[in-house]
Design a protein that fits this description.
Low-confidence stretches of chain B: none
Oligomer: heterodimer
Distance between the termini of chain B: 37 Å
Pfam family, one (chain A): AzlC
Shape of chain A: globular
Helix content of chain A: over 70%
InterPro entries (chain A): Brnchd-chn_aa_trnsp_permease
Number of helices of chain B: 4
Organism (chain A): Neorhizobium huautlense
Mean pLDDT of chain B: 92
Distance between the termini of chain A: 46 Å
Radius of gyration of chain A: 20 Å
Protein name (chain A): Branched-subunit amino acid permease
Strand content of chain B: under 5%
Helix content of chain B: over 70%
Number of strands of chain A: 0
Order of helices and strands of chain B: HHHH
Number of helices of chain A: 12
Structural class of chain B: mainly alpha
Keywords (chain A): Membrane, Transmembrane, Transmembrane helix
Number of domains of chain A: 2
Shape of chain B: flat
Largest interface: A-B, 99 and 80 residues
Largest sheet of chain A: none
Chain lengths: ~240, ~110
């Protein structure tokens, strides 16, 4: 290793990310999930398997919802898979920053399981500060620790925590969106990210009223494309200006 | 609710596979993208817009306890919080604590 710290060292550095605000926020959400799972009639083992196997809170809630309605497995699959399409651009957008030319594909496929919204934000913020050769190890350290810790939390808090008092529950629920808002804005380096940020925030709730069920997809693909075009236009003008000068 | 082993089949097929196929597709697509290529600009914009749409929906259409709180309170908490965050050097802790404090104060004040 040319770097003073090897992959193992960076893996441990990633693990330390468990002691952070976003990790804490997600843990409170998973305590809430285990209460919801119990209420819905899931066993402890099923709630744990869902957390480890799906690792995406919205998809887990949707799966439980369809199971409660005794939906056919194909209907459950469709509902969950529609809600999970967002994983594709999320994973695709951090891959180029995470891998090297030598990173084996199976390693990336394995690590991708630990990418969900919290770890995506974490990767967008911190990957650039890690030497490229060690980014996969760093992310695996964080992602795996976060997933396994929350799996443990679901197993332990099942049946112990029934519900938080209303004001606390409300505040804990609100932590997730306000954390995403400030951390994604703070980590945005390219203007295209900020443009997409604003468009997404407006488009999400608006489209929920117009095309319920497909709002997030339309806001993502449509809103993202509009943001990209605005940014490309901006970059071209900038380029023309610098060439004219 | 279905019984026993079948629930685990549902979790594996309609949960694990239904979610991870998109992650794997994301890896295959991202594997071909170069850093700072035009395509990556677009993918980043789509991913950001998607995540922010999900985020804004959590505030505007919350589930659970917050569903009973007034929309204006949630919007004011998030909006004022973001403005303070921007005005004070973009510290994430500020961006989280200010809206939460406003929300808690509002919820306590509005309590019957």
């Amino acid at each position: 290793m040319s770097s003073p710290r090897g992959n193992l060292g960076w893996f441990f550095t990633g693990m330390r990310g468990i002691f952070s605000l976003p990790a804490f926020i997600l843990m409170t959400s998973y305590v809430g999930f285990s209460a919801f799972a119990l209420e819905s009639g899931l066993t402890r083992g099923e709630a744990v398997a869902m957390t480890l196997g799906i690792w995406a809170l919205p998809a887990q809630m949707i799966l439980i919802g369809t199971m409660l309605g005794n939906a056919h497995i194909a209907a459950s699959f469709i509902a969950v898979t529609l809600s999970s399409i967002r994983m594709m651009p999320m994973v695709a957008s951090i891959m180029p920053e995470m891998r090297t030319k030598k990173t084996p594909l199976p390693v990336l496929l394995f690590v991708s399981h630990f990418i969900a919204i919290t770890s995506w934000v974490f990767a967008s913020r911190h990957l650039r500060d890690v030497p490229r050769d060690h980014r996969v190890a760093f992310f695996a350290g964080f992602g795996m620790t976060l997933t396994l810790t929350n799996t443990l939390i679901v197993g332990v808090s099942y049946g112990v925590v029934s519900q938080f008092p209303p004001v606390i529950a409300g505040a804990l629920f609100m932590l997730t969106p306000v954390y995403f808002i400030s951390s994604i804005w703070a980590s945005a380096v390219q203007p295209v990210v900020k443009i997409a940020f604003v468009i997404g925030i407006v488009a999400g709730p608006t489209l929920a009223l117009i095309v319920p069920g497909f709002d997030v997809l339309v806001a993502g693909i449509g809103g993202g494309t509009v943001a990209y075009l605005i940014d490309r236009n901006r970059r071209r003008k900038l380029l023309a200006k610098s060439e004219a000068a | 609710m279905a019984e026993g082993w079948w629930t685990y089949v549902v979790i594996i097929v309609a949960g694990f596979l239904a979610t991870d196929i998109w992650r794997w597709l994301g890896v295959l697509i991202g594997h071909r993208l170069n850093e700072d290529s035009e395509a990556l600009y677009w993918v980043r914009a789509v991913a950001t817009s998607l995540v922010m749409a999900v985020t804004a929906k959590l505030i505007v259409f919350p589930t659970g306890t917050l569903a009973n709180s007034p929309l204006w309170l949630r919007l004011a908490a998030a909006g004022i919080g973001f403005a303070v965050f921007l005005g004070t050097g973009k510290r994430v802790a500020v961006g989280v604590l200010v809206p939460i404090a406003i929300l808690i104060a509002g919820l306590l004040f509005l309590q019957p």
